[in-house]
Amino acid sequence: NAGVTQTPKFQVLKTGQSMTLQCAQDMNHEYMSWYRQDPGMGLRLIHYSVGAGITDQGEVPNGYNVSRSTTEDFPLRLLSAAPSQTSVYFCASSPRTGYSYEQYFGPGTRLTVT
Amino acid sequence: AQSVTQPDIHITVSEGASLELRCNYSYGATPYLFWYVQSPGQGLQLLLKYFSGDTLVQGIKGFEAEFKRSQSSFNLRKPSVHWSDAAEYFCAVAGGNEKLTFGTGTRLTIIP
User: Fold this and answer.
1) DSSP states of A23-87 as a string?
2) Residue A27 and residue A104 in contact, taking contact as beta carbons nearer than 8 Å
3) I want to staple B67 with a disulfide (CB 3.0 to 4.6 A). Which of A88, B30, B55, B96 is the partner?
4) Cβ neighbours of A41 in B, within 8 Å
5) Strands of the sheet with A64-66, listed across from one edge
6) Chains A and B: how many Cβ contacts under 8 Å?
7) Is the pLDDT of residue A1 over 80?
């Protein structure tokens, strides 16, 4: 199993550009989520999904869009990038079965918006 | 709403010394508690978790944590640290669903 994979690893955008951060998992996990990590603030939940076709907002959803058309993939879209979105983005997944709540994290995408 | 406080932003420990990282949580019922470790430039790896039962839980890499309901704490401990333990450590709480709330992290530095 590859686990949770994220692409790209690094990205530089100009203000106003849009892009999609890719996330995929091969563990058949129902739950997937996106976090952003900023210095001194830990990880904050952006959006999450409890299954294909179902998404919901987390703590900091503004400026981001998600969709979940398959169990495996959960892309994060930046609609119009802003310097405040400079961050490290992590995708995570969880099996939900047995009330595990244990999340498996991808390696992250470091995004810089200039 | 659930929340987590990690009061120590940065801790420095000598190699071979014992370690305790503090974590306090806020949640109305019995929480699900986690400790994750993040090495520089890497993702997060689960060290250990508490759901119920024995309040002293063992994790990977020789770490353990103790759940104390009366103190709303879930402190992480290791009897003897190694240089490879230098990393950032995050405590997290889940309040009955998968939505994790993380603390702000504690950066651990190991000195020879």
Assistant:
1) EEESS--SEEEEEEE-TTS-EEEEEEEEETTEEEE-SS-TTEEE--SSSSB--EEESS--GGG-E
2) yes
3) B55
4) 104
5) A4-7, A19-25, A76-78, A64-66
6) 56
7) no
Residues A53/A69, Cβ–Cβ less than 8 Å:
yes
CA distances from A88 to A11, A37, A65, B85, B95 (A): 10, 5, 17, 22, 25
Residues forming a β-bridge with A4 = A25
Averaged pLDDT for residues B31-43? 91
Q: Which residue has the tokens 């839980």?
A: B57
Nearest CA-CA distance, residue A36 and chain B, Å: 11
* Rounded Cα gap, residues A101 and B23, in angstroms: 19
* Side-chain-side CA neighbours of residue B53 (13 Å): 6
**What residues are paired with B48 via a beta bridge?**
B35
User: Could you tell me the two tokens for A80?
Assistant: 């119009």
Is residue B109 within 8 Å of residue B14, measured between CB atoms? no
- Confidence bin at A98 (pLDDT 50/70/90): low
- B interface residues, A as partner, C-beta within 8 Å: 4, 9, 32, 34, 36, 42-46, 49, 51, 90, 94, 97-105
**Dihedral sign (CA B11, A107, A27, A68):** positive
Q: Which two tokens stand for residue B100?
A: 């994790």
